[in-house]
C-alpha cells in the first residue's frame, strides 16, 4: 500500500482532495492530510510517506523548502506540486529537483488523479529489482564468502570476546562497508514466509533479499548482511551521518525502508518477508544479546503469513513481583470458575484479556511464558477433570510451548482448547469475535470526532499501518475507511434527529471540521444532504400523525 500526503493551507482544497483520493483505489492508497508545512513534517516523522501532493506557495515554509526537508528524510518520496500560480521561477526550481512533478490547480481533478496514478506505477516499477538482482549476483557471491559469513555468525553468537575483535576488523576490511567498531550498531532480522524446503532455492531467496535490502537501506546507512545458522538474513547497520546515532528519526527510517524492502521482495521474488529490528543502538559487545532478543520477538509475533515490520523497544528485563504473579494466577482462577459455572461470556472476557497480553508487542518473553503456562495448565486440568481426552487427543501439547513454531500458533492452540471445553458444555457456540478487530471497531464508534487516520489507529493499537489495513480487510471483508465512513453516517443520522443541533455541529461530532466536506460525503452515501435528510424526517413524522 502506498501512502499519499496532501498539503495545502487552503482547507477546502485539502479536504476535497483528501475525500477524492480516499476513495480512489482504497486497497492501494492510504491518504493523509496537513494544512501546513509544519504539520506535514510531523507526518514525515511518524511514518513513511511515498507521495506528497503539496501547494508550492504557503505561509512560512513554502513547498520548495518543505520538499528539501522531506527528501533529506525520505529520499525515495515523490513530490507533486499543485499550485494556482504559473510562476516561471517556482516552476523552474521545481523542475531542478529529483522525483518532482508540477501541476496547475486549473488542470482539474482528473489530471491530478492521472498524475498520482502514474507516480504510483513509477514507484511500483522501481520496486521491481529483477534487473538489479541479475547484475549483482556475481558481487553477492563474493560478499557471502564462507570465511566472512562464518566470522559474522560468530559475532552474533559470541560478541567481541578476546581475540574475536581483531578477526572481525580484518573481515570488515574485506567487505565494501564503512562500519565502525567504535560506533554503536543496529540489527535487522528478516525471515521469508514460508521458509522454502529446497536448500538451493532458500539460499537463492536469501541472497536476493540481501541485495534488495542493501540497495534500499544503503541510501542512508552503512550496512553488511549475513545469513545466520537458522536460515534468516541479518543486517548490521549504522547511519551514514555523523550525528545519526542521536537522531530518533533513524529507527523510523529503518522501519519505513524495510516496508519498501518487503514490497520489492514481493514484486521481484514473490515472497513475503517478516522483519524484526532493534529500535535502539547497541554496542558491539551487546550484539549477541540484541540478536537473541530479536529472535525471541520474531518467534512471538510471526505465524500468520502476513509481512510485518516489528521494532524491539528495549526495556530492562522483566522480573515478576509477588503482586504481579498473584494478579495473573487470580485471573486464571476466576476464569476457571466462570468455565465451571457456565458463565461463558465472563470466561471468554478473561481468557481474551490474558491471551491478548501474550500478543502485545511490549510483552517480554519471561512474562509471556508465565502467562501462557498459567492458562495452559488451567485448560489441561479441565480436560482431565471432565474426562475429555477423546475431544483433544494431543492435549499434552498444551504443556510444551517449545513445540510450537511461534507464539501466535501457541495462542491459536489455546483458543482451540478453550473452544473445545466451552462446546462441551454449550452446543452451537457462536464463533468468537476477533478481539483486536472488535476493540478497533468499538474505539472507532466511540471516537468519531477524533483522528481516525490509518497511521493514528495503528499507533493506538500497536500495529504497523500497512499490516493493520490488510488485517482489517481480511477479518471484516470491507476497507477500514469504508467502515469509518459508515459509522460516521450512522451517527450523523442519529444526531440529525435533534433539531437543536446545527449541521456544522453534527459534522464536528462525527469528525469533520468542514461542514462542506461533511455535506458532500453525506449526500454521496445517502443521496440527500443532511438538511434534506432532516426535512424528510419531519415530513415522515407529520404523515404518521
TrEMBL record:
Keywords: DNA-binding, Phosphoprotein, Transcription, Transcription regulation. The modification 4-aspartylphosphate is found at residue 55. The keyword Membrane does not apply. Signal peptide: none annotated. One of its GO terms (molecular function) is DNA-binding transcription factor activity. It holds the Pfam family Response_reg. One of its GO terms (biological process) is phosphorelay signal transduction system. SMART domains: HTH_ARAC, REC. Residues 438-536 form the HTH araC/xylS-type domain. Residues 3-120 form the Response regulatory domain. The keyword Transit peptide does not apply. This is Response regulator.
Amino acid at each position: 500500500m502506498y501512502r499519499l500526503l496532501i498539503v495545502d493551507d487552503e482547507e477546502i482544497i485539502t479536504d476535497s482532495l483528501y475525500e477524492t483520493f480516499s476513495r480512489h483505489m482504497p486497497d492501494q492508497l492510504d491518504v493523509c492530510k496537513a494544512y501546513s508545512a509544519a504539520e506535514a513534517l510531523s507526518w514525515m516523522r511518524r511514518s513513511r510517506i511515498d507521495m506528497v501532493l503539496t501547494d508550492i506557495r504557503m505561509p512560512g515554509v513554502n513547498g520548495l523548502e518543505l520538499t528539501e526537508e522531506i527528501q533529506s528524510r525520505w529520499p525515495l518520496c515523490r513530490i507533486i506540486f499543485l499550485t494556482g500560480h504559473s510562476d516561471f521561477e517556482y516552476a523552474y526550481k521545481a523542475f531542478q529537483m529529483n522525483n518532482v512533478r508540477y501541476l496547475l490547480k486549473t488542470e482539474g481533478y482528473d489530471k491530478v488523479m492521472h498524475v498520482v496514478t502514474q507516480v504510483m506505477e513509477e514507484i511500483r516499477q522501481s520496486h521491481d529489482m529483477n534487473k538489479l538482482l541479475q547484475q549483482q549476483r556475481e558481487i553477492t557471491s563474493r560478499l557471502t564468502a564462507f570465511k566472512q559469513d562464518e566470522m559474522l555468525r560468530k559475532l552474533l553468537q559470541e560478541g567481541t570476546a578476546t581475540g574475536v575483535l581483531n578477526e572481525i576488523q580484518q573481515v570488515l576490511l574485506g567487505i565494501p562497508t564503512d562500519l565502525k567498531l567504535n560506533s554503536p550498531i543496529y540489527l535487522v532480522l528478516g525471515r521469508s514466509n514460508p521458509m522454502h524446503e529446497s536448500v538451493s532455492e532458500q539460499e537463492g531467496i536469501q541472497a536476493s533479499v540481501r541485495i534488495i535490502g542493501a540497495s534500499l537501506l544503503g541510501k542512508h546507512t552503512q550496512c553488511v548482511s549475513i545469513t545466520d545458522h537458522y536460515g534468516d538474513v541479518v543486517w548490521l547497520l549504522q547511519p551514514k551521518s555523523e550525528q545519526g546515532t542521536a537522531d530518533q528519526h533513524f529507527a523510523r527510517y529503518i522501519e519505513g525502508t524495510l516496508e519498501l524492502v518487503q514490497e520489492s521482495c514481493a514484486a521481484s521474488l514473490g515472497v513475503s518477508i517478516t522483519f524484526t529490528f532493534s529500535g535502539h543502538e547497541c554496542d558491539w559487545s551487546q550484539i549477541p544479546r540484541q540478536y537473541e532478543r530479536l529472535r525471541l520477538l520474531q518467534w512471538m509475533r510471526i505465524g500468520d503469513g502476513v509481512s510485518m515490520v516489528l521494532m524491539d523497544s528495549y526495556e530492562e528485563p522483566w522480573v515478576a513481583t509477588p503482586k504481579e504473579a498473584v494478579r495473573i494466577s487470580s485471573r486464571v482462577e476466576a476464569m476457571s470458575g466462570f468455565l465451571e459455572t457456565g458463565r461463558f461470556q465472563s470466561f471468554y472476557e478473561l481468557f481474551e484479556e490474558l491471551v491478548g497480553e501474550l500478543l502485545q508487542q511490549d510483552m517480554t518473553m519471561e512474562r509471556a511464558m508465565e502467562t501462557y503456562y498459567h492458562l495452559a495448565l488451567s485448560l489441561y486440568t479441565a480436560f482431565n477433570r471432565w474426562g475429555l481426552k477423546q475431544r483433544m487427543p494431543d492435549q499434552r501439547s498444551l504443556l510444551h510451548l517449545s513445540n510450537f513454531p511461534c507464539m501466535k500458533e501457541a495462542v491459536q492452540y489455546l483458543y482451540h482448547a478453550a473452544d473445545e471445553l466451552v462446546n462441551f458444555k454449550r452446543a452451537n457456540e457462536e464463533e468468537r469475535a476477533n478481539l483486536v478487530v472488535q476493540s478497533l471497531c468499538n474505539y472507532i464508534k466511540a471516537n468519531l470526532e477524533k483522528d481516525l487516520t490509518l497511521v493514528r489507529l495503528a499507533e493506538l493499537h500497536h500495529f504497523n499501518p500497512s499490516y493493520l489495513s490488510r488485517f482489517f480487510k481480511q477479518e471484516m471483508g470491507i476497507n477500514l475507511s469504508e467502515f469509518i465512513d459508515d459509522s460516521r453516517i450512522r451517527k450523523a443520522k442519529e444526531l440529525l434527529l435533534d433539531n437543536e443541533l446545527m449541521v456544522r455541529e453534527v459534522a464536528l461530532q462525527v469528525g469533520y471540521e468542514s461542514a462542506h466536506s461533511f455535506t458532500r460525503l453525506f449526500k454521496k452515501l445517502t443521496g440527500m444532504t443532511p438538511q434534506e435528510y432532516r426535512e424528510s424526517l419531519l415530513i415522515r413524522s407529520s404523515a404518521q400523525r
